[in-house]
Specification:
alpha+beta; 12 strands; four-stranded mixed sheet; globular; 355 residues
């Protein structure tokens, strides 16, 4: 069994189940690999075609990860329930059939597989072997990296309350009004144009030695973020089957970066800036309540904690986090548990507060 170090397991990204291409070179690679290693598994014509579709998605994403960084691993669950309808792991071409495809690829020496622990929410990891890397180089070289950035991921999805892993397309959501559907269609068009434009842009940190950025906090297990040109597409997600809940954008690799590192980002060799609307959430609430307590130059999150030995920065972070958790939690119990869990991860704040 292949040996994966803890660092290799952590240096990972999720399998992108939405990658697709009909380039002749891609189709030829899929046919070659299928004929060599998979032809004896399925006999029915429809099963053969579905297996080839799964293999294509897998090979495309492994190829992109290999070009991004040969040390990068890809994470995916290896139990059928993860690929239920509307799951975040399921797409147009991917169902639970991906599991036997991955197992067969590992068996014939195309993949190295680290079996995760699903109970602990540690999905399995895969990476291409030397055999598959040689096939990539022979069939594709490095010439298709940017051509394969496009994604079939829906620009807008909805989720039910409490269900973080089930996506619904707008037409599957009950009770959306005609004017809301019109707005969704208009926004989806903007997102599609944005993703098409950002496909053509190169985003990186020029002074970073390599493509791997350490994002773990001091004293905690090392975790890394890969600056990948294949992880730039964004998607808008609404909650509670409502256009008035959620609506944030997700998907770009920079969203997982610490603020100080985002300031180092360049787009097409040009420096970037990030606009920060300070205290936006709580100031909006004060405004809705008709309360002008805070002037524009005051910081609404800066409140005093005279009994605790906290820096000004930590006081602000604590007040802001408590406020945002309280605004988004369903009830007081959930809010308190979330606040306690957050404090446990912040070593300096944790030490300064009573048990």
């Amino acid at each position: 069994m292949p040996q994966f170090t803890s660092e290799e397991i952590e240096y990972s990204r999720r399998l992108d189940v939405w990658k697709w291409s009909d380039f002749p070179e891609i189709n030829n690679l899929v046919q070659e690999v299928y004929s060599m290693y998979f032809v004896h598994i399925y006999s029915r014509r429809d099963a053969v075609q579905r297996a080839k579709n799964h293999l294509k998605v897998l090979l495309i994403d492994l190829y992109l990860a290999f070009l991004d960084d040969p040390k990068l691993t890809i994470g995916l669950p290896m139990y059928p329930g993860a690929y239920s309808p509307r799951s975040i792991w399921r797409s147009i071409h991917v169902t639970s059939m991906i599991i036997p495809i991955v197992k067969q690829a590992a068996k014939v020496g195309l993949l190295e597989l680290w079996t995760g622990n699903e109970i602990q929410k540690r999905v399995s990891r895969i990476r291409p072997t030397t055999t598959l890397k040689k096939l990539f180089k022979k069939s594709l070289g490095e010439g298709y990296y940017f051509e394969l950035q496009n994604s079939l991921r829906p620009p807008i999805v909805f989720r039910k309350s409490k269900d973080k892993h089930t996506n619904y397309l707008p037409h599957e959501v009950p009770n959306l009004e005609e004017k809301e559907m019109t707005q969704i269609a208009r926004t989806a068009g903007v997102i599609i144009k944005y993703n098409a434009r950002i496909n053509c842009a190169y985003i990186d940190i020029p002074d970073l030695n390599g493509k791997k950025l350490k994002v773990s906090k001091s004293g905690r297990q090392a975790t890394y973020l890969h600056l990948s040109q294949s992880k730039k597409h964004i998607q808008q997600i609404y909650n509670d089957f409502s256009m008035y809940s959620g609506g944030r954008f997700y998907g770009g690799f920079w969203q997982s970066m610490p603020k100080e590192d985002r300031a180092r980002l360049y787009i097409d060799d040009e420096p970037t800036i990030e606009l920060d609307y300070s205290g936006m959430h709580i100031n909006a609430l004060y405004s809705l309540a008709g309360n002008s307590r805070y002037e524009s130059n005051d910081d609404p999150y800066m409140i005093s904690h005279p009994s605790y030995n906290l820096t000004n920065e930590d006081r602000r972070r604590l007040a802001k986090q408590i406020t945002l958790i309280a605004l988004n939690a369903e009830n007081e119990t959930i809010a308190l548990n979330a606040i306690r869990n957050w404090i446990r991860t912040e070593e300096d704040i944790h030490k300064a507060l009573p048990n």
